[in-house]
Amino acid sequence: MSNLNHYIRQVKPRNESYTPPVEKIQNFLAEGTDFSTAMESVLGVAYAAASYKDSKAGKKYLETQATTGKFKKDFGITKAVHTNRKVLNIDALMALGKNIKTAVEGDGKFEFQGKGKTTSDWQKWKGRGGSDTSKTDIVIGGKKCSVKNAAGAQLMSGKRGESIATTCAASDASGLDGDVTGDILKSINELETVLTEGYFASVDNLKQLKKHGGGQKLVDWAKNEVATYEKALAAWEATEGALKKDMPKKPNEEIIRIATDKPVKIKAGEFKGKTMKPSEFPTEIAGINAKFLDDMDVKFNDNANDVKEKLSAAFKENNDFKLAFVYEAASGTRKFGDIIQSADYILSWERKPDIKDFKINVYPIPNRNAATIKTYANQIDLQVNWKSSSTASHAGYNAYQNVRLGLKKLMDDTEESMEESYKVIGNYRQQLNEGYLSEFAFWDKVKEVTKQIMDKAKQLWDGFVIWLKKVVEKIKAAAQDGLKALSNIMGLELDTNDTLRNNKRLKLR
Q1: Which of 43, 95, 295, 327 is the most exposed place for a label (fewest CB within 10 A)?
Q2: C-alpha distances in angstroms, 289 versus 23, 163, 190?
Q3: What DSSP state is assigned to residue 273?
Q4: Which pLDDT belongs to residue 410?
């Protein structure tokens, strides 16, 4: 410890105003989706149900929890994989429970974890003490488990203080050179936390306002965006033979919400307790907002790049430091010490179309040399970027730079699958245009590629599957109007009057 104290005193992390932690819901990867968060409850209930000696009693317990108990909402979120014709598939859920029981063993009990008291070392490193979010998501069968989606997960998403403490813990464990440690800490200490002004003053909103809105307020710009869209939509609808691809793009939900200027009761900040409209707040490119955007383009961007470069270099030069950093991010061993909030297992689940087929694995992570930690270390995706606690309950957004340590396998698989599909369809389209492929043969090929995409999607994150289903629905809807409508969706120009109505061979299922 003594070799770090000098650098901690040098850096002197600035005290940060408290921002309620943006926990699992805002995480970028699959672990952070509503589905993945809800899965933790489903896993626990299914495990407990399968542990009943009397299977009928276990099924009754499971059905009660899923339909009327406190986990009803979570089962509703995940129903796509465990319902059969809108009816809860108890047998499939019990099969999942048996899989978990086999992997976990244990006493058949589960409990979730919230916050825990951090160690004195962690409090000193971070600069703010007390309690923090548990690394253990669920204690199941007596094992303290961090729950991860096998398709991709996030190990860490930390603001300045959290990132400094993780670096110190990893440095202390691995013996990283003191000068290297001090240089990393100095850079991390430059990461920023900013409270923007106004209402719905998110980073993206402010950027759009600066680029398109001139000197007006955010709410006025939003109203103009919505009005422009509605006018363009009306013109498109009135145009005979208008193509779907030419349909004007609808503003995002946040812009629409701002434009309505609906009053909201403020729950925090200087306006706490008041009911106010977005138009009553000074959300414009001036003062702190103008400085914030200017700093983002230069100072803050340089800060982020500097942290990423120095951490990446240290990971490359000292593999033991990298393993220690990943281990701390996954387990919270130095953060919490030997208490229930520090995880000693990874419970991994891999999504399949039917929940009974979900693959369940439990991996011990006793130290930084554990096989799972080494696997994670080979896959990590280090990013330093902006996050914000976006909420309508207070004036302004708490925007902050954070160090995110995720597993890139999910994004790599998704992008690789889609890029390959685009290339294949593009090749078929070229053959069609050059007369080497008939229209009917072309659509058979498209069907084949679509099936391949769907098969791949089932192995990937739920957001991708939802998006793809929407695409397929559009294709099915266009199929009712024939090849020409389908070609418009694909960006093709086909001069044909043929339809799919009379050709069962081409029916999309």
Answers
A1: 295
A2: 26, 26, 19
A3: T
A4: 40
Distance CA(308)–CA(314), nearest Å, equals: 10
- 312/178 same-domain check: yes
Which sign does the torsion angle of CA 436, 439, 444, 448 carry?
A: positive
> Do 40 and 154 reside in the same domain of the chain?
yes
Q: Is residue 205 part of a domain?
A: no
Q: Which of 251, 281, 311 is the last residue of a domain?
A: 281
Given the structure tokens 């800060």, which residue do they identify? 303
d(CA 89, CA 100): 17
Give a yes or no: residue 290 inside a domain: no
CB 394 within 8 A of CB 374: no
The upper half-sphere exposure of residue 455, i.e. CA atoms within 13 Å in the direction of its Cβ, equals 7
- Would you state the pLDDT for residue 378? 86
Boundaries of domain holding 186: 2-193+295-407
Strands 345-350 and 143-149: parallel
Kindly state the greatest CA–CA separation across the chain: 80
Compute the distance between CA of residue 397 and CA of residue 254 in angstroms, rounded to an integer: 14
Distance CA 106, CA 100 (A): 10
CA distance 24 to 270: 27
CA 167 – CA 181 distance, rounded (Å):
8
Task: Give yes or no for a contact between 135 and 146, defined as CB atoms under 8 angstroms apart.
Answer: yes
With residue 174 as reference, give the H or E element that holds it: helix 160-174
Question: What is the total count of domains within the chain?
Answer: 3
143 in the same domain as 230: no
- 309 with 453, same domain: the answer is no
* 17: in domain: yes
* Residue 383 bridge partners (DSSP): 404
| Same-domain pairing of 28 and 69 | yes
334 and 396 fall within a common domain:
yes
Residue 200, domain member (yes or no): no
Full-model pTM: 0.70
Task: Tell me: do 15 and 138 sit in the same domain.
Answer: yes
Run means of pLDDT, 10 residues per run, the chain, 509 residues: 53 40 31 76 97 96 94 93 91 97 94 91 84 93 93 86 96 96 96 79 77 81 92 93 89 83 76 82 81 88 95 96 97 96 95 93 95 89 80 68 77 48 62 62 70 58 52 62 54 41 38
Question: Which tokens belong to 63?
Answer: 């059905």
Do 208 and 252 touch, CB atoms closer than 8 A?
no
Question: Phi and psi for 211 in degrees, rounded to 5?
Answer: -75, -40
Q: Is the same domain home to 183 and 243?
A: no
The DSSP output letter for 356 is: G
